[in-house]
């Protein structure tokens, strides 16, 4: 793209943009979101302070001003349910940091960070003192990585309500005892080395739990219903995680689709359980922006955003986030320590570079509007995605994909320069940071 064309397009975007200088500049966005049943709040990275802070602020306002009653995050169900018990006054944890204590597996900083800690404490105070009879707002997880933790949670629940059922469940789940505690090793053993999978046993366990629901809920109390629902979600998670870890060895598309389908099904189950309460979802842009408007969709991948739009037709709002440069909390490889890394300026031809050219530090766009900006944004461009790993040395292949932004999101929030998310426990790698630019600017 020539400099003249970039300036022309940037002027069109600038004319349509709502510049953000204070929290009141989100009022119009809140009106759009308040009319929806499900609001999807994304992030372009898993480690940006501003993305988490804006999501938290918008969510607080949706709860207080628009009657939302659930926050569902890209975290595992049992880890998140401990937080839920804390914010609803049922847990034994003394603080938000304690309640977040089960988020210990890599990447712990996604949820064990200062912004989430502050939000969780706010949510507890709102529920206990400020909601004024308008109902509590819960905190739930959608992901499926917690196979063994979810097994333990199902067994603990059954031991309390039906020891005989717990014994049967323990016998079924003992199938996993023949494998490594690492779920990936289970997938490898059953797909490549001919070991018998545990699929039938985990399905049987979920079916028994569902078939005996009425018996287990014979007293009918609200806490009893919630605990059963949590046990059921854990049993369903075990079933889907078992499939997921086997699918990992058949290709990315199949495992990705299983994971996002599980997250969407969790939202559906939660929506019904809460009496169709309004929900906010926190996850990465790649999960919440409609996959059909990206090269992901062309490769056969679906995602939560696509499924939500199909299920809640006209009753959802998808909000994406972007940044041009700054710093981010990420690792160099899976399982490695969190580092504070410099985010290189966005590549020419990308949405992020176009937004930078507007000269606006912060703004949001209503992509539902019919104007010159929305029309020009319909032309496919590169879009950046940084997950828990950031590899600037392979920036183009590792972190960019083609997308049509107005088809992907309803609203886009751009923050031109952003900063690394602060983990609750920072390593020496994070504290030292990576502030010198170590890679050339024109890769």
Description:
- This protein has 443 residues and is α/β, with parallel strands linked by helices.
- It folds into 2 domains: 1-65 and 284-443, 3-Layer(aba) Sandwich (EreA/ChaN-like  fold); 146-250.
- Helices cover 49% and strands 14% of the residues.
- The chain has 21 helices and 13 strands.
- It has helices at 3-16, 27-34, 49-66, 77-87, 96-99, 114-130, 147-161, 163-173, 183-192, 199-211, 213-216, 222-247, 252-273, 285-288, 295-298, 304-311, 351-357, 372-377, 395-399, 405-408, 428-432; strands at 18-19, 38-41, 70-76, 138-143, 279-282, 316-322, 325-330, 339-343, 362-366, 381-384, 400-403, 411-415, 417-418.
- It has an 8-stranded mixed β-sheet, with helices on both faces. A 3-stranded mixed β-sheet has the order 8-7-13. It has a two-stranded antiparallel ribbon with strand order 10-11.
- Strand 7 (325-330) and strand 8 (339-343) form a beta hairpin.
- Helix 8 (163-173) runs antiparallel to helix 10 and helix 10 runs antiparallel to helix 12.
- The chain is globular, with a radius of gyration of 22 Å.
- The model is unreliable at 435-443 (pLDDT under 50).
Question: Mind sketching the topology for me?
Answer:
Elements: H1 3-16, E1 18-19, H2 27-34, E2 38-41, H3 49-66, E3 70-76, H4 77-87, H5 96-99, H6 114-130, E4 138-143, H7 147-161, H8 163-173, H9 183-192, H10 199-211, H11 213-216, H12 222-247, H13 252-273, E5 279-282, H14 285-288, H15 295-298, H16 304-311, E6 316-322, E7 325-330, E8 339-343, H17 351-357, E9 362-366, H18 372-377, E10 381-384, H19 395-399, E11 400-403, H20 405-408, E12 411-415, E13 417-418, H21 428-432
Parallel strand pairs: 2-5, 2-6, 3-4, 3-5, 6-12, 7-13
Antiparallel strand pairs: 1-9, 7-8, 9-12, 10-11
Helix pairs in contact: 1-17, 3-6, 7-8, 7-12, 8-10, 9-12, 10-12, 12-13
